[in-house]
Specification:
8-stranded mixed beta sheet, TIM Barrel, globular, single chain, alpha/beta
Length: about 400
């Protein structure tokens, strides 16, 4: 890949602004769902909160300059995204919109997948250990040793969002690894179920997405876009009208920033491949790297691969990633904190003959799906469940 010059980076962010403006003009505005914190960092039944994450290191050739999140946001707003809010990142490798689909997997994820030493599982392990909960701390520590995606959503205000993105990238770049992010802020998220919330409307969502894109631009990253958003159109069409167009605007903004995106495509036992392919096309998969399957679910890799290959063929050869975070024991009859589930195979970048780019841990194993099967609120750490996942993990 080439390096992004300040001029090129300016053009990228102009593209972000253009895509955002177009999206704001066209996107409908559904009603706001009840807010929730789906990825809060507290331990279920824990008498003490999880300690805040330590500030990640920012050294290294491609680390961002030491400006505050507030200044970055002010620059983003005041410039109207007409030039880079952070010229110091211009030395990072870039992926142009034309090469997002064709870049070899080994280059897209050069250096391998990033492990965040300040991630949710690592912080939880520290807290549980301090409380003398040895077995639960050990399970959290086992999970923390693997690359797990970083989720971004409405539980972070703008300043926290910038700090989270910049810190995660700086940590990954210090060791030459590639981080994976998840955007989870679509209006009427989860059809008002356990993980309800998201942006108030499409305009707010697209502004939020543009801020995310502006911080990712110029860095080697990958993004999984809005788990369940397209699949849930089957469940609550009255709340999800026009969602494909909203996602298409968000994906275009990411693409203009050179960010490879994987649009969530449900799983092998939800929406038929041809139906999902049509939704992905409407959601701008031609501008994305491809799609993701099995996010937060339990279906075996081979079932997901067979489904994904059908979707890929129907979308012109889109690449895909599969979430293996909890599929080590296969489907257990429920999606919500399924009893008997286990960790799947460790995340890895693929280079085989199929269109599979990577096996990822997109869902944070140990984070609750919601108040079901004994779990706490969605996103809260479910310590006893994490112990079960580790105990039942897949071999290899």
């Amino acid at each position: 890949m080439t390096h992004m010059t300040p001029t090129t980076r300016a053009a990228v962010v102009i593209g972000v602004a253009v895509a955002l403006t177009a999206g704001l003009a066209a996107a409908p505005s559904p009603a706001r769902a009840a807010p929730v914190d789906p990825h809060a960092n507290s331990v279920a039944t824990s008498p003490a909160p999880v300690a805040p994450a330590p500030a990640p290191a920012t050294s290294g050739a491609t680390a961002r300059s030491p400006k505050s999140a507030e200044r970055a946001i002010a620059t983003f707003v005041s410039l109207g995204a007409t030039r880079s809010p952070d010229p110091a990142s211009s030395a990072a490798p870039a992926v142009t919109p034309q090469t997002i689909r064709t870049t070899p997997t080994t280059k897209l994820f050069a250096g391998g997948l990033s492990v965040d030493p300040a991630g949710e599982a690592a912080r939880t392990a520290t807290t549980l250990s301090s409380q003398g909960r040895t077995a639960e701390a050990a399970a959290a520590r086992t999970i923390a040793q693997q690359p797990v995606a970083t989720w971004l959503g409405s539980w972070l205000d703008d300043a926290q969002l910038v700090k989270k993105i910049d810190g995660t990238i700086a940590t990954a770049e210090k060791v030459g690894k590639t981080p994976v992010f998840v955007t989870y802020n679509i209006p009427n998220r989860d059809c008002g179920s356990h993980s309800a919330g998201g942006s108030a409307d499409n305009a707010g969502y697209l502004r939020w997405n543009a801020l995310v894109a502006s911080r990712l631009a110029g860095h080697r990253v990958a993004v999984v876009v809005e788990p369940d958003a397209l699949s849930l159109i089957s469940n609550c069409p009255e709340q999800t009208g026009g969602r494909e167009a909203t996602i298409a605007s968000a994906v275009a903004t990411l693409a203009d920033a050179g960010v490879p995106a994987y649009i969530d495509a449900g799983n092998s036992n939800w929406v038929p491949p041809q139906t999902m392919a049509a939704r992905l096309k409407a959601a701008g998969v031609d501008r994305a790297r491809g799609f993701a399957t099995n996010v937060s679910n339990y279906y075996p890799v081979e079932a997901e691969r067979a489904y994904a290959e059908k979707v890929s063929q129907a979308t012109g050869g889109a690449r895909y990633v599969i979430d293996t975070s909890r599929n080590g024991r296969g489907w257990k009859g429920t999606w919500c904190n399924a009893p008997g589930a286990g960790l799947g195979v460790a995340p890895s970048v693929q280079s085989g003959t199929t269109r599979l780019d990577a096996l990822l841990w997109i869902k944070t194993p140990g984070a609750s799906d919601g108040q079901c099967n004994g779990g706490p609120a969605a996103g809260k750490w479910f310590a006893s469940y994490a112990v079960q996942l580790v105990a039942n993990r897949a071999a290899g």
